[in-house]
Amino acid sequence: MPQSNPSPSAVFATPAVSTRPGEAVRALFTEHGVRDVECIFPDISGYPRGKLMPAESFLAGGELRICQAIPMQAVTGDYSYNPVFPDSDPDVRLLPDYPTVSLAPWASVPRAVAIHDCLELDGSLCQFAPRSTLKTVLARYAALGLRPVVAPEIEFYLTAPNADAAQPLLAPLVRGGRAEVGQSAFSLNMLNELAPFWNEFRDACRTLGIAADTWIHEVGATQYEINLLHGDAVAVADQAFLFKYAAREIALKHGLNAVFMAKPIAGSAGSSMHLHISVVDAQGGNVFSLADGSESPRLGHFIAGLQTYAPELMLMLAPNVNSYRRYVSGSQAPVNLQWGYDNRTTGLRIPASGPAARRVENRLAGADANPYLAMAASLAAGLKGLQEQLAPSAPLSGNGYDSAHSLPRSMEEALQAMQHSSAARAFFGDHFVTGYCAVKALELQSFQSEISAWERRFLLPQV
User: If residue 158 lies in a helix (H) or strand (E), which one and from where to where?
Assistant: First the structure.
């Protein structure tokens, strides 16, 4: 396979999109009396930020600008003063992606929502914006005549309100008047609990164009999983982004919290975002399969790319302090990058499937990961394996937890790995890596400055 990549100027080129909404958008606004438009984009945490715009201004193609630093806002609300961020704090333009326009199902008045790209004033994609980061990786695939196909599985909890952050999250009361207890995986009775939330949320997903496949009750108390249908990586990341936004908003309407932390409750199951990935050629053929239906060497190359480069990109798959609490032996969360056929104890699983659906399931990402960045990291690592024709380790048929814990054990370890990764800078550019790591260092410093309940509980009386 060719080794060359497009130049940075090519992957950050001006998007070829319309600057005016089409008739379908106008008809939607007229039919529903849309008053305002939420002009949103994902920041580095996958959190929706943006501006509210009058519908008539949106239809007229009115220009929106926002500070360049906003896509790199920390979860604490702070900003980094690393020199990679200009002191002048320049503007970026927000360019709507019109196919993402839909009604905002959480709004109390007729309102639309539209996902936007962040563009520099010269028209190039902003290198600090996560949607741009994913698009740069996809441009490298396109230059080789390839296209990734991705399907995420997203887990989350529904909990009771939590007014005091010092107190643990609790399961809400359900139909029988009591809180659910755990270990009810795949229970249909438990899936039927909290029906008013689920009815509204499923309608919201349809309104937003979220192509949901199956819904299940997971192991934890009021923990659930949704599988999204496979598709184009940006489109699927958009759906995952809107899924999390809608879940939070509609849960609040029903007196609940939708929680996407990787390990929100001590002693309970963590929440993941498994990514099922295949790659197709220009004819739509799965490059992981040969013409006779057997396994292609490219499957091994892709796996090896993840094994080789994912450790340097873990900060994009496990972006928060809490993320690393999920990697517990025996929990169906991975602890290493072993791979195997239909083996859920490994970090990389090859599900049983026909040739057209042959794929790699990357089990590393937590539900707290930004879907754009988790996909970008996974696809970049896999592409590097394809280009370098790397060889994977032998597939594991036994228990992956019997192998060494080789994933980073802390956010600090993952931060150090990404800061010093030449591969990460080659994949995503110096500006993104430096800026992303600077913000994550800021978040880590904030965490380390807070004294925990554990320290007060055990150290206060005894040291």
Answer: strand 147-159
State the pLDDT at residue 185: 83
| DSSP code per residue over 189-255 | HHHTTTHHHHHHHHHHHHHHT--EEEEEE-SSTTEEEEEEPPEEHHHHHHHHHHHHHHHHHHHHHTT
- The torsion angles phi and psi of 135, rounded to 5 degrees, stand at -65, -35
- Which one has a higher pLDDT value, 231 or 1? 231
- The Cα–Cα gap between 386 and 407 comes to 22
Residue 453 near residue 406, CB atoms below 8 Å: no
pTM for the model stands at: 0.94
For 150-187, letters b (16+ CB in 10 Å) and e give bbbbbbbbbbeeeeeeeeebebbebeeeeebebebeee
CA distance 144 to 162: 49
In the prediction, which pLDDT does 183 show?
Answer: 78
Complete domains list, the chain, with CATH: 19-126 (3.10.20.70), 141-429 (3.30.590.10)
Q: Is 384 in contact with 304 (CB distance < 8 Å)?
A: no
pLDDT tens digit sequence for 224-250:
999 999 999 999 999 999 999 999 999
